[in-house]
Amino acid sequence: MTENGPRKTWPPAASSAGGWDDENEEPPVKALSPDEAAALKSALPMLSPWRVLGMQLVAGLLCVAVIRLWTASGVAMASALYGVAAVVLPNMLLARGMTKRVNSAAAAAAGFMGWEFLKIGASIAMLVLAPKVVPGLSWPALLVTLAVCIKVNWLALAWRGRQN
C-alpha cells in the first residue's frame, strides 16, 4: 500500500480465485479462429478508397457549380476546380499506394507512412503553386472547395456506419 492507495504492479495480479481480476484490468485478448475472423470481416465491410475519391470528386464538382452560379466568375470557378484537384490528386496517390498488396504488417505501416508523406507533400506543393497556375486566384473559392472535399472523408465513414 502507498499513501495514494494500492501499489500498481505489472503484470496485474490474478484474483484470489486464480483467474483474471476483472475489476481492475481488461481480460487478455483472444485470438480469433479463421471462421470467426471471416464472420467479423463480412460484418464490417471495407470502404473502398476509390469510392471515397469518387465521392470527393462529386462533392467538389457540386461545390464548383455552386460557386460558378453564385459568383458568375470564371476565376472563382477555376480556383474552385484547383481546390478539388489539390485534394483529389494527392489522395489518388495515397489510394494507389494503399491498395497494393503487402506481405507484412511492418511493410504495410511503412508503406502507409510513405504514401501519406507523399500525399501531404503533393498537397502542399499544389497549394504553393496555386497562384502561378491560376492567374487571379480566388483563395476563398479554393479553400471552401478544398474544405468541402476534405470533409467528404467523414461523410463517407458516417455513411458506411449507417449501412450496417
TrEMBL record:
Residues 1-30 are annotated as: Disordered. It is a multi-pass membrane protein. The keyword Membrane applies. It comes from the Bacteria. The chain crosses the membrane at residues 50-70, 76-94, 106-131, 137-159. GO terms for cellular component: plasma membrane. Keywords: Cell membrane, Membrane, Transmembrane, Transmembrane helix. It is found in: Cell membrane. This is ATP synthase protein I. It comes from Roseateles saccharophilus (Pseudomonas saccharophila).
